[in-house]
Specification:
The longest helix has 18 residues, at 168-185. This protein has 357 residues and is an alpha+beta fold. Helices cover 24% and strands 35% of the residues. The protein is built from eight helices and 20 strands. A hairpin with a 2-residue loop joins strand 12 (251-254) and strand 13. It is elongated, with a radius of gyration of 24 Å.
């Protein structure tokens, strides 16, 4: 049983009359890698800033290890933040940047030296002590920023889109480095991003936010395979998202065509949302599937091909290692287990609209 470390207790926050967080209630456990994921303007960075102490909620409280720290200044909290721009001191070398917080705390010279060497080894920058931060790559600067945070021995490390400025290969390398450091340090990581792949790769728990609300919280597998609403399904990974009818238990229709599913309990002849992941859409020879269509687009994406199929005016997207030619007539087959049924929102207020980044 994991111990509760942080409770963001019914937090609300507004700026100039615009609600950014609306009754946010979130519990984070010790030694957990939690990713707060969502589009720009969803409230994820404000959540991090309130936790760090840079913002104060209008309503609600921040509970840390059982104590109310809502009004505690940032330097008194057992947290450190790594920002997207790293916020390094360009007039200092690597060692001086890492040691800055320790010198403020008036630690001994030998203690500081030991901590610098430990942190540099942890982030893979041994021998870089005297290097100017201006002469480092983006990835190296990011490692220095993490090292500077780590030496203060925080119980929680807050990361605000720290990989956003890196190229794809370096970003992927750093994802694995962060996982390794989290396991080695046994501290809690709270990571903010709008990158779905980062969230799925690194997290123990993903918190999907939109419009100041938590849309869904769960493991990467739960979020991807069992989205609770259309926003989550559309935001996490690629999706075929269709309106449908839940005819009865284990039976739906899409555009009037019946499909077997495994869901139960949605009622009888009830409008629902249907999500089917592209990798679960099988293109089979004519006569062997449930519906027929024509391939309209074919794109090679490295590990698979992506094909668009027109089915009576409805576009289906399929991903497969076996391509079908544009213009080819095919059938579509979907295993019942791979059809995810979701309740439709009952009102416009309940429906979350994805914003542009």
């Amino acid at each position: 049983m994991k111990n509760e470390l942080i409770h963001l207790n019914h937090i609300s926050k507004s700026y100039n009359g615009k609600v950014v967080l609306d009754d946010l209630d979130l519990i984070i456990h010790e030694n957990e890698f939690v990713t707060i994921l969502g589009p720009s303007g969803c409230g994820k960075t404000t959540t991090l800033r309130i936790l760090a102490g840079f913002e104060t909620p209008d309503i609600g409280s921040v509970i840390f290890s059982g104590k109310d720290i809502t009004n505690l200044p940032p330097n008194k909290r057992q947290l450190n933040t790594v920002f997207q721009n790293y916020a390094l001191f360009t007039h200092m070398n690597v060692a001086e940047n890492i040691a800055f917080g320790l010198k403020i705390k008036k630690q001994s010279r030998s203690y500081i030296e030991d901590k610098i060497q430990y942190a540099l080894k942890l982030v893979g920058l041994e021998g870089f002590e005297k290097r100017s931060v201006n002469n480092l790559s983006g990835g190296q600067q990011q490692r220095v920023a993490i090292a500077r945070a780590i030496v203060n021995e925080p119980r929680v490390l807050l990361l605000d889109e720290p990989l956003g400025a890196l190229d794809l290969k370096l970003r992927q390398d750093m994802q694995y480095e962060l996982i390794r450091m989290k396991n080695e340090l046994s501290i809690t990581f709270i990571y903010v991003t709008h990158d779905q792949q980062e969230a799925l790769t690194m997290s123990d728990t993903i918190v999907v936010m939109n419009q100041g609300y938590i849309q869904q919280m769960g493991t990467p597998e739960e979020i991807y395979n069992e989205p609770e609403n259309a926003f989550v399904a559309d935001f996490i990974g690629d999706s075929n998202l269709f309106p449908g009818i839940f005819v009865r238990d284990e039976m739906i229709t899409i555009d009037g065509v019946p499909f077997a599913c495994v869901d139960t309990g949605f009622g009888t002849n009830k409008p629902v949302d249907i999500v089917i992941r592209p990798e679960d859409v099988d293109l089979v020879p004519c006569g062997q599937g449930t519906v027929s269509g024509v391939v309209t687009d074919l794109i090679f994406k490295g590990v698979h091909y992506e094909m668009c199929v027109d089915v009576n005016g409805r576009e289906w997207v399929s991903q497969s290692t076996m391509p079908c030619a544009v213009g080819e007539e095919v059938d579509i087959s979907v295993h019942p287990f791979n059809i995810q049924v979701m309740n439709k929102p009952e009102s416009e207020d309940e429906e979350a609209v994805k914003t542009d980044d």
